[in-house]
Known about the structure:
Elements: E1 9-14, H1 21-39, E2 44-46, H2 55-67, E3 72-77, H3 83-93, E4 97-102, H4 117-130, E5 142-143, H5 145-166, E6 168-173, H6 188-192, E7 196-200, H7 202-211, H8 218-229, H9 239-256, E8 262-266, H10 272-277, H11 282-290, E9 295-296, H12 301-314, E10 318-325, H13 329-336, E11 347-352, E12 365-368, E13 382-388, E14 392-401, E15 407-416, E16 426-431, H14 435-444, E17 451-455, H15 460-469, E18 475-477
Parallel strand pairs: 1-2, 1-3, 3-4, 4-5, 6-7, 6-8, 8-9, 13-16, 15-18
Antiparallel strand pairs: 10-11, 10-17, 11-16, 12-13, 14-15, 14-17, 15-16
Amino acid sequence: MNNMPKVKIGIVxxxxxxxxxxxxxxxxxxxxxxxAAKYGMDDIYExxxxxxxxxxxxxxAVEDLKKNGCNALCVYLGNFGPEIAETLLxxxxxxxxxxxxxxxxxxxxxxxxxxxxxxGVLNASYNLKLRNLKAYIPEYPVGTAEECADxxxxxVPIAKAIVGLRNLKIISFGPRPLNFLACNAxxxxxxxxxxEIEENSELDLFEAFxxxxxxxxIPGVVKEMEEELGAGNKRPEVLEKLAxxxxxxxxxxxxxxxxxxxxxxxxxxxxxxxxxFKFVPCYVNSRLTAKGIPVSCEVDIYGxxxxxxxxxxxxxxxxxxxxxxxxxxxxxxxxIEGKFPYTxxxxxxxxxxxxxxxxxxxxxxxxxxxIMARNLPIECTNGTLEGDIAPGKITFFRLQSTADAQxxxxxxxxxxxxxxxxxxxxxxVFAIPEMGRFYRHVLIERNYPHHGAVAFGHFGKALYExxxxxxxxxxxFNQPKGMLYPTENPxx
Length: 492
């Protein structure tokens, strides 16, 4: 996948001058050796500078990290650590940072070999707060060399997401469709997150599309599409236009990313799109998303943002779906009850017109957009990629700015069930434990829109840490039975 950040984490050992420096140096070497043995050295660098209480040594470490291409930092407390220098290291590095610390090794070496890093993390956290600095601190940040190596590995997707967002531009086309206030997108919070946005008219996009007519690359893209669709190529007459549109978007991204390295797109797809372009863009959206360029539907800017975060964290394709319809009672009785550990209210159908990548569908065909075709000629609505979403683990999540520009998020892990949907679009039968309560007391109560990003796997732990690092104060989840939501009636 393209359009994906890479990280190189520099590990710096810090030392308090009244503790043996060798504790930090030797323990750092042990952590790096453990990491190399388990994960290799592609995304980690061992900084040879050992910080004491000197700001000068701190600056030397920062210079060394940057010279060696590090864009993320691990501050490792091999002993108590210098609370000022170690937090200034986070400040001057100016990239995603984490803090972890050494556990004591043996009861036989608690005189000169005791490092007190357990205590040092407390002072480090206090000093971070004093300086309004952010750092990722694992759930239990004190460990053996092997345990600290695992902590650093868990930081990798978090660091990638932060690096990605600081270098992301969202390109949008057109205002939201009528009656889609639910996807309202105040852009202030994008800037607070370090994200740039370029808002364009769909007329600009239409002009660019027309300028790509006859592009010499179109036949090659059509051939790619034919190979991908195989027997599912049920609308071959629209492929040339879809290829023209795909090239239009890819060229726009290259011409407009500007100073940013990564791009996501919030695209327009109705109501005038079909009548003017003479197709719907769903299949192209799926193909770009599969290339690592997330494309949201219906100019859903925060949907595109969420998809990008999910792509980086999962290192895989994501999709954007409506939290769409309930599962009929007879389908639940026939295909779910007694076969899966879910109540009827735990289930729902996630759907969109046809924007999910072919590799994430159990089967697929190129079709027309059934809902739009109720009011328009079918030939204007060709271009959806339809089929049941492949069964497996998923994480449903969203980062959202509210209408009054407050940032909040939700995360819920579940699965797509191996149950035929018997419906249209890109669609699946989803199950999330306690979904009924989550739907009422998070999605409805906190005014979330109907779109949610879907990552294919369980990534709640990393996503939660990303949102915390970004300063999102409210991150909701599907609470287990017996754990009441603030608005839940305890007598219900």
